[in-house]
Amino acid sequence: MTDHEQTQERAAGGLLGKVSGRAKQLVGSAFGNSQLDREGRLQQVQVEVEEEAIERSQEVDEKDAEARLAIAKAETESERREVEQELAQMSEEERIEHEQAQGKRQAKAAHAEEVREATALEREANRADRAADAIDPGQRR
Question: How many domains does the chain have?
Answer without folding.
Answer: 1
